Amino acid sequence: MNVVVKGKQASRCEAPILVAAPHSTFLDGGIVYVTGFPSTICRYESGANNHIGKLINFTQPIYVWRDDPDSRQNTIQEIISRATSSLDWPQILIFPEGTCTNRSCLITFKPGAFFPGVPIQPVCIRYPNKLDTVTWTWEGPSALKLLWLTLSQPYSNCEIEFLPVYTPNEEEKQDPKLFARNVRAVMAKALNIPVVDYTYDDCKLLTKAKELNLPYASSLVEVIKLRRKLGLENANIEEKLINSSFKSKDYSSVTYEEFIRLLNISSENTESYQLFKKYDKENSGVIDFRNYLLGVLGISKERSTLAIFQIACKIYDQNGDGRLSSEDFCKAACQILGLSKEYALEIFDQIDRNQLGSILFENFLNYAQKKTEFISLFTSNKEEKLRQRNGDICPNYYNKKVD
Q1: Are 100 and 23 in contact (CB under 8 A)?
Q2: pTM for this structure?
Protein backbone atom coordinates (compact mmCIF):
# COMPACT_ATOMS: atom_id res chain seq x y z
CA MET A 1 0.00 0.00 0.00
CA ASN A 2 1.59 3.22 -1.18
CA VAL A 3 0.40 5.78 1.40
CA VAL A 4 0.96 9.47 0.67
CA VAL A 5 0.45 11.90 3.56
CA LYS A 6 -0.34 15.54 2.80
CA GLY A 7 -0.48 18.35 5.31
CA LYS A 8 0.52 18.13 8.95
CA GLN A 9 -1.27 16.46 11.80
CA ALA A 10 -2.12 18.80 14.66
CA SER A 11 -1.28 17.96 18.25
CA ARG A 12 -3.91 17.07 20.82
CA CYS A 13 -3.63 20.56 22.32
CA GLU A 14 -4.43 22.10 18.94
CA ALA A 15 -7.21 19.62 18.00
CA PRO A 16 -8.39 16.96 20.49
CA ILE A 17 -10.53 15.34 17.79
CA LEU A 18 -9.72 14.13 14.25
CA VAL A 19 -12.63 13.52 11.84
CA ALA A 20 -11.87 11.36 8.79
CA ALA A 21 -13.98 11.01 5.65
CA PRO A 22 -15.11 9.59 3.37
CA HIS A 23 -15.23 6.21 5.09
CA SER A 24 -15.39 3.57 2.37
CA THR A 25 -13.42 0.47 3.34
CA PHE A 26 -12.01 -1.65 6.15
CA LEU A 27 -8.58 -0.52 4.89
CA ASP A 28 -9.39 2.92 6.35
CA GLY A 29 -8.31 1.36 9.63
CA GLY A 30 -4.75 1.99 8.48
CA ILE A 31 -5.22 5.66 9.34
CA VAL A 32 -4.98 4.65 12.99
CA TYR A 33 -1.32 3.78 12.38
CA VAL A 34 -0.64 6.94 10.32
CA THR A 35 -2.12 9.20 13.02
CA GLY A 36 -0.16 7.68 15.88
CA PHE A 37 -2.79 5.34 17.37
CA PRO A 38 -5.50 7.76 18.54
CA SER A 39 -8.57 6.51 20.43
CA THR A 40 -11.32 5.37 18.09
CA ILE A 41 -15.10 5.08 18.24
CA CYS A 42 -15.69 1.41 17.68
CA ARG A 43 -18.49 -1.15 17.68
CA TYR A 44 -18.32 -3.49 20.66
CA GLU A 45 -18.40 -6.45 18.25
CA SER A 46 -15.11 -5.33 16.69
CA GLY A 47 -13.38 -5.26 20.06
CA ALA A 48 -14.62 -8.77 20.77
CA ASN A 49 -13.07 -10.04 17.53
CA ASN A 50 -10.40 -12.65 18.25
CA HIS A 51 -8.12 -11.37 15.47
CA ILE A 52 -8.04 -7.58 15.90
CA GLY A 53 -9.74 -7.05 19.27
CA LYS A 54 -6.46 -6.75 21.22
CA LEU A 55 -5.09 -4.21 18.71
CA ILE A 56 -8.26 -2.13 19.00
CA ASN A 57 -8.14 -2.25 22.80
CA PHE A 58 -4.58 -0.92 22.64
CA THR A 59 -5.95 2.42 21.36
CA GLN A 60 -8.22 2.86 24.43
CA PRO A 61 -11.33 3.07 22.22
CA ILE A 62 -14.81 4.31 23.07
CA TYR A 63 -17.08 1.35 22.46
CA VAL A 64 -20.57 1.67 20.99
CA TRP A 65 -23.42 -0.80 21.48
CA ARG A 66 -25.68 -0.01 18.52
CA ASP A 67 -28.59 -2.04 19.91
CA ASP A 68 -28.46 -0.28 23.29
CA PRO A 69 -30.74 2.81 23.35
CA ASP A 70 -28.55 4.44 26.02
CA SER A 71 -25.29 3.80 24.16
CA ARG A 72 -25.52 6.95 22.05
CA GLN A 73 -25.76 9.27 25.05
CA ASN A 74 -23.04 7.37 26.90
CA THR A 75 -20.75 7.65 23.88
CA ILE A 76 -21.35 11.39 23.54
CA GLN A 77 -20.62 11.95 27.23
CA GLU A 78 -17.38 9.96 26.96
CA ILE A 79 -16.28 11.93 23.87
CA ILE A 80 -16.97 15.22 25.68
CA SER A 81 -15.17 14.00 28.79
CA ARG A 82 -12.01 12.97 26.94
CA ALA A 83 -11.92 15.90 24.50
CA THR A 84 -12.17 18.47 27.30
CA SER A 85 -10.03 16.60 29.85
CA SER A 86 -6.74 17.98 31.15
CA LEU A 87 -5.41 14.42 31.38
CA ASP A 88 -3.05 13.03 28.77
CA TRP A 89 -5.61 11.20 26.66
CA PRO A 90 -4.74 10.44 23.02
CA GLN A 91 -6.55 12.30 20.25
CA ILE A 92 -9.94 10.86 19.30
CA LEU A 93 -10.36 9.66 15.71
CA ILE A 94 -13.93 9.56 14.42
CA PHE A 95 -15.44 8.60 11.06
CA PRO A 96 -18.46 10.93 11.35
CA GLU A 97 -20.45 9.30 8.52
CA GLY A 98 -20.92 6.24 10.70
CA THR A 99 -20.91 3.82 7.76
CA CYS A 100 -19.10 3.06 4.50
CA THR A 101 -19.96 4.80 1.24
CA ASN A 102 -18.47 4.63 -2.26
CA ARG A 103 -16.64 7.99 -1.89
CA SER A 104 -18.81 9.68 -4.54
CA CYS A 105 -20.22 12.07 -1.91
CA LEU A 106 -20.20 12.88 1.80
CA ILE A 107 -23.33 11.75 3.61
CA THR A 108 -24.65 13.42 6.77
CA PHE A 109 -22.09 13.62 9.57
CA LYS A 110 -23.24 12.29 12.92
CA PRO A 111 -22.92 15.09 15.52
CA GLY A 112 -21.03 13.02 18.14
CA ALA A 113 -17.61 14.45 17.27
CA PHE A 114 -18.97 17.98 17.40
CA PHE A 115 -20.75 17.98 20.78
CA PRO A 116 -17.62 18.94 22.78
CA GLY A 117 -17.35 22.18 20.78
CA VAL A 118 -13.56 21.91 20.63
CA PRO A 119 -11.28 22.52 17.62
CA ILE A 120 -11.13 19.54 15.31
CA GLN A 121 -8.89 18.59 12.40
CA PRO A 122 -10.56 17.26 9.24
CA VAL A 123 -8.73 14.38 7.56
CA CYS A 124 -9.52 13.48 3.93
CA ILE A 125 -8.97 9.96 2.60
CA ARG A 126 -8.57 9.16 -1.08
CA TYR A 127 -7.83 5.97 -3.03
CA PRO A 128 -6.63 7.23 -6.45
CA ASN A 129 -6.43 3.80 -8.11
CA LYS A 130 -7.44 2.97 -11.67
CA LEU A 131 -9.18 -0.18 -10.46
CA ASP A 132 -11.23 0.19 -7.27
CA THR A 133 -10.77 -2.93 -5.16
CA VAL A 134 -11.30 -1.38 -1.74
CA THR A 135 -14.84 0.04 -1.61
CA TRP A 136 -16.87 -1.98 0.88
CA THR A 137 -20.48 -0.81 1.14
CA TRP A 138 -23.92 -2.15 1.97
CA GLU A 139 -24.16 -3.82 -1.42
CA GLY A 140 -21.34 -5.28 -3.47
CA PRO A 141 -18.38 -7.64 -3.04
CA SER A 142 -17.59 -9.14 0.36
CA ALA A 143 -14.63 -8.06 2.48
CA LEU A 144 -12.78 -11.29 1.65
CA LYS A 145 -13.22 -10.79 -2.09
CA LEU A 146 -12.06 -7.18 -1.89
CA LEU A 147 -9.02 -8.19 0.14
CA TRP A 148 -8.15 -10.86 -2.44
CA LEU A 149 -8.55 -8.42 -5.35
CA THR A 150 -6.42 -5.80 -3.56
CA LEU A 151 -3.68 -8.35 -2.84
CA SER A 152 -3.77 -9.40 -6.51
CA GLN A 153 -2.41 -6.00 -7.53
CA PRO A 154 1.28 -5.07 -7.22
CA TYR A 155 0.38 -2.03 -5.14
CA SER A 156 -2.52 0.27 -4.26
CA ASN A 157 -2.47 4.01 -3.61
CA CYS A 158 -3.92 5.84 -0.64
CA GLU A 159 -3.78 9.56 0.10
CA ILE A 160 -4.35 10.98 3.57
CA GLU A 161 -4.63 14.76 3.75
CA PHE A 162 -4.66 16.71 7.01
CA LEU A 163 -6.65 19.91 6.50
CA PRO A 164 -6.16 23.00 8.68
CA VAL A 165 -7.66 22.81 12.17
CA TYR A 166 -11.29 23.98 12.23
CA THR A 167 -12.10 26.10 15.28
CA PRO A 168 -15.84 26.47 15.91
CA ASN A 169 -17.47 29.83 16.51
CA GLU A 170 -19.94 30.40 19.35
CA GLU A 171 -22.95 29.49 17.20
CA GLU A 172 -21.34 26.21 16.15
CA LYS A 173 -20.44 25.39 19.75
CA GLN A 174 -24.11 25.70 20.66
CA ASP A 175 -25.32 23.74 17.60
CA PRO A 176 -23.36 20.49 16.95
CA LYS A 177 -25.36 19.78 13.78
CA LEU A 178 -24.42 23.17 12.32
CA PHE A 179 -20.80 22.52 13.31
CA ALA A 180 -20.95 19.11 11.57
CA ARG A 181 -22.49 20.55 8.38
CA ASN A 182 -19.87 23.28 8.11
CA VAL A 183 -16.97 20.88 8.61
CA ARG A 184 -18.49 18.53 6.03
CA ALA A 185 -18.70 21.42 3.55
CA VAL A 186 -14.99 22.18 4.04
CA MET A 187 -14.06 18.52 3.49
CA ALA A 188 -16.35 18.16 0.46
CA LYS A 189 -14.70 21.18 -1.13
CA ALA A 190 -11.24 19.74 -0.54
CA LEU A 191 -12.33 16.37 -1.95
CA ASN A 192 -14.24 18.00 -4.85
CA ILE A 193 -17.33 15.88 -4.22
CA PRO A 194 -20.94 16.82 -3.34
CA VAL A 195 -22.75 16.37 -0.03
CA VAL A 196 -25.90 14.24 0.30
CA ASP A 197 -28.27 14.28 3.27
CA TYR A 198 -28.33 10.55 3.86
CA THR A 199 -27.44 8.99 7.20
CA TYR A 200 -26.42 5.62 8.63
CA ASP A 201 -30.02 5.16 9.80
CA ASP A 202 -31.20 5.72 6.22
CA CYS A 203 -28.86 2.94 5.07
CA LYS A 204 -30.29 0.62 7.73
CA LEU A 205 -33.80 1.52 6.63
CA LEU A 206 -33.03 0.80 2.97
CA THR A 207 -31.43 -2.52 3.85
CA LYS A 208 -34.44 -3.56 5.90
CA ALA A 209 -36.81 -2.50 3.10
CA LYS A 210 -34.91 -4.57 0.54
CA GLU A 211 -34.70 -7.61 2.83
CA LEU A 212 -38.48 -7.48 3.22
CA ASN A 213 -39.03 -6.96 -0.53
CA LEU A 214 -41.05 -3.84 0.26
CA PRO A 215 -42.44 -2.02 -2.79
CA TYR A 216 -40.29 0.89 -4.06
CA ALA A 217 -37.67 0.12 -1.41
CA SER A 218 -35.08 2.48 -2.90
CA SER A 219 -37.49 5.45 -2.57
CA LEU A 220 -38.56 4.84 1.02
CA VAL A 221 -35.96 7.16 2.58
CA GLU A 222 -37.38 10.10 0.60
CA VAL A 223 -40.92 8.90 1.38
CA ILE A 224 -40.23 8.96 5.13
CA LYS A 225 -38.73 12.47 4.92
CA LEU A 226 -41.71 13.77 2.93
CA ARG A 227 -44.14 12.21 5.43
CA ARG A 228 -42.26 13.95 8.24
CA LYS A 229 -42.59 17.34 6.51
CA LEU A 230 -46.32 16.73 5.98
CA GLY A 231 -46.87 15.85 9.64
CA LEU A 232 -47.85 12.26 8.86
CA GLU A 233 -45.15 10.68 11.00
CA ASN A 234 -47.00 11.06 14.31
CA ALA A 235 -50.54 11.02 12.94
CA ASN A 236 -50.64 7.23 12.37
CA ILE A 237 -53.12 7.84 9.53
CA GLU A 238 -51.90 4.85 7.52
CA GLU A 239 -52.31 2.50 10.47
CA LYS A 240 -55.82 3.80 11.12
CA LEU A 241 -56.68 3.28 7.47
CA ILE A 242 -55.89 -0.44 7.38
CA ASN A 243 -57.95 -0.94 10.54
CA SER A 244 -60.94 0.95 9.13
CA SER A 245 -63.50 0.29 6.44
CA PHE A 246 -61.17 1.45 3.65
CA LYS A 247 -60.57 -2.20 2.75
CA SER A 248 -64.04 -2.51 1.29
CA LYS A 249 -62.84 -0.51 -1.73
CA ASP A 250 -60.33 -1.24 -4.48
CA TYR A 251 -57.23 0.87 -3.88
CA SER A 252 -55.06 -0.57 -6.63
CA SER A 253 -55.65 2.58 -8.76
CA VAL A 254 -55.76 5.78 -6.72
CA THR A 255 -55.63 9.27 -8.25
CA TYR A 256 -53.81 12.23 -6.70
CA GLU A 257 -57.09 13.74 -5.44
CA GLU A 258 -58.02 10.45 -3.74
CA PHE A 259 -54.49 10.13 -2.35
CA ILE A 260 -54.51 13.49 -0.54
CA ARG A 261 -58.06 12.85 0.71
CA LEU A 262 -57.10 9.49 2.19
CA LEU A 263 -54.07 10.96 3.97
CA ASN A 264 -55.87 14.19 4.90
CA ILE A 265 -53.10 16.39 3.51
CA SER A 266 -53.26 19.60 1.51
CA SER A 267 -52.96 19.57 -2.27
CA GLU A 268 -51.21 22.94 -2.07
CA ASN A 269 -48.12 21.47 -0.42
CA THR A 270 -45.44 20.58 -2.96
CA GLU A 271 -44.43 17.71 -0.66
CA SER A 272 -47.87 16.11 -1.17
CA TYR A 273 -47.35 15.92 -4.92
CA GLN A 274 -43.74 14.77 -4.51
CA LEU A 275 -44.93 11.97 -2.23
CA PHE A 276 -47.51 10.86 -4.81
CA LYS A 277 -44.95 10.93 -7.62
CA LYS A 278 -42.64 8.56 -5.71
CA TYR A 279 -45.18 5.86 -6.57
CA ASP A 280 -46.26 7.17 -9.97
CA LYS A 281 -43.07 6.21 -11.78
CA GLU A 282 -44.78 5.89 -15.17
CA ASN A 283 -46.64 9.23 -14.96
CA SER A 284 -49.97 7.46 -15.34
CA GLY A 285 -51.77 9.70 -12.84
CA VAL A 286 -52.70 6.76 -10.61
CA ILE A 287 -50.82 4.67 -8.05
CA ASP A 288 -51.36 1.40 -6.22
CA PHE A 289 -52.10 2.82 -2.79
CA ARG A 290 -51.47 -0.59 -1.22
CA ASN A 291 -47.79 -0.30 -2.17
CA TYR A 292 -47.60 3.00 -0.33
CA LEU A 293 -49.24 1.59 2.80
CA LEU A 294 -47.08 -1.52 2.88
CA GLY A 295 -43.85 0.40 2.38
CA VAL A 296 -44.62 3.00 5.04
CA LEU A 297 -45.99 0.61 7.66
CA GLY A 298 -43.20 -1.88 7.01
CA ILE A 299 -40.46 0.53 8.11
CA SER A 300 -42.15 3.20 10.22
CA LYS A 301 -41.79 1.14 13.41
CA GLU A 302 -39.57 -1.65 14.68
CA ARG A 303 -41.67 -4.59 13.58
CA SER A 304 -40.87 -8.26 13.08
CA THR A 305 -41.23 -9.90 9.66
CA LEU A 306 -44.28 -11.75 10.98
CA ALA A 307 -45.95 -8.49 12.05
CA ILE A 308 -45.25 -6.93 8.65
CA PHE A 309 -46.64 -10.01 6.92
CA GLN A 310 -49.81 -9.64 9.01
CA ILE A 311 -50.08 -6.01 7.87
CA ALA A 312 -49.62 -7.14 4.25
CA CYS A 313 -52.46 -9.64 4.71
CA LYS A 314 -54.72 -6.82 5.93
CA ILE A 315 -53.75 -4.59 3.02
CA TYR A 316 -54.30 -7.24 0.35
CA ASP A 317 -57.56 -8.53 1.93
CA GLN A 318 -59.89 -7.44 -0.85
CA ASN A 319 -63.15 -8.15 0.98
CA GLY A 320 -62.04 -6.64 4.26
CA ASP A 321 -63.52 -9.52 6.25
CA GLY A 322 -60.26 -11.03 7.51
CA ARG A 323 -60.46 -13.96 5.11
CA LEU A 324 -57.74 -14.22 2.48
CA SER A 325 -58.37 -15.66 -0.95
CA SER A 326 -55.55 -17.51 -2.69
CA GLU A 327 -54.80 -14.34 -4.67
CA ASP A 328 -54.69 -12.19 -1.51
CA PHE A 329 -52.45 -14.67 0.30
CA CYS A 330 -50.07 -15.00 -2.66
CA LYS A 331 -49.62 -11.24 -2.95
CA ALA A 332 -48.72 -10.90 0.72
CA ALA A 333 -46.53 -14.03 0.90
CA CYS A 334 -44.65 -13.30 -2.32
CA GLN A 335 -44.06 -9.68 -1.33
CA ILE A 336 -42.93 -10.07 2.29
CA LEU A 337 -41.80 -13.69 2.65
CA GLY A 338 -40.17 -13.84 -0.78
CA LEU A 339 -42.05 -17.00 -1.78
CA SER A 340 -42.65 -17.97 -5.39
CA LYS A 341 -46.28 -17.86 -6.51
CA GLU A 342 -46.31 -21.62 -7.03
CA TYR A 343 -45.02 -22.31 -3.53
CA ALA A 344 -47.44 -19.80 -1.99
CA LEU A 345 -50.37 -21.50 -3.74
CA GLU A 346 -49.13 -24.88 -2.52
CA ILE A 347 -49.07 -23.62 1.07
CA PHE A 348 -52.53 -22.09 0.64
CA ASP A 349 -53.92 -25.45 -0.56
CA GLN A 350 -52.34 -27.26 2.38
CA ILE A 351 -53.94 -24.82 4.83
CA ASP A 352 -57.31 -24.78 3.05
CA ARG A 353 -57.87 -28.54 3.31
CA ASN A 354 -61.66 -28.10 3.40
CA GLN A 355 -61.46 -26.15 0.13
CA LEU A 356 -63.34 -23.14 1.46
CA GLY A 357 -61.48 -20.89 -0.95
CA SER A 358 -60.17 -18.64 1.82
CA ILE A 359 -58.07 -18.78 4.98
CA LEU A 360 -57.51 -16.69 8.10
CA PHE A 361 -54.15 -15.25 9.12
CA GLU A 362 -54.41 -17.42 12.25
CA ASN A 363 -54.66 -20.51 10.00
CA PHE A 364 -51.32 -19.61 8.48
CA LEU A 365 -49.80 -19.11 11.94
CA ASN A 366 -50.85 -22.58 13.06
CA TYR A 367 -49.43 -24.05 9.86
CA ALA A 368 -46.15 -22.10 9.93
CA GLN A 369 -45.38 -22.98 13.56
CA LYS A 370 -45.09 -26.63 12.55
CA LYS A 371 -42.79 -26.01 9.57
CA THR A 372 -39.01 -25.57 9.95
CA GLU A 373 -38.81 -23.27 6.92
CA PHE A 374 -40.87 -20.67 8.81
CA ILE A 375 -39.25 -21.01 12.23
CA SER A 376 -37.31 -17.76 11.82
CA LEU A 377 -40.63 -15.86 11.78
CA PHE A 378 -41.15 -16.79 15.42
CA THR A 379 -37.58 -16.15 16.58
CA SER A 380 -36.51 -12.70 17.70
CA ASN A 381 -32.91 -13.53 18.67
CA LYS A 382 -30.50 -12.99 15.74
CA GLU A 383 -28.08 -15.67 16.95
CA GLU A 384 -30.89 -18.21 17.16
CA LYS A 385 -32.01 -17.31 13.64
CA LEU A 386 -28.48 -17.78 12.36
CA ARG A 387 -28.16 -21.12 14.12
CA GLN A 388 -31.49 -22.34 12.78
CA ARG A 389 -30.54 -21.31 9.26
CA ASN A 390 -27.00 -22.68 9.20
CA GLY A 391 -26.98 -25.26 12.01
CA ASP A 392 -24.54 -25.49 14.90
CA ILE A 393 -20.92 -24.86 13.97
CA CYS A 394 -19.79 -27.83 16.07
CA PRO A 395 -22.90 -29.98 16.67
CA ASN A 396 -22.64 -32.44 19.53
CA TYR A 397 -23.88 -35.68 18.00
CA TYR A 398 -22.90 -37.77 21.02
CA ASN A 399 -25.58 -36.24 23.26
CA LYS A 400 -28.39 -37.09 20.87
CA LYS A 401 -30.78 -39.80 21.98
CA VAL A 402 -31.14 -42.85 19.79
CA ASP A 403 -34.69 -44.00 19.08
Answers
A1: yes
A2: 0.70
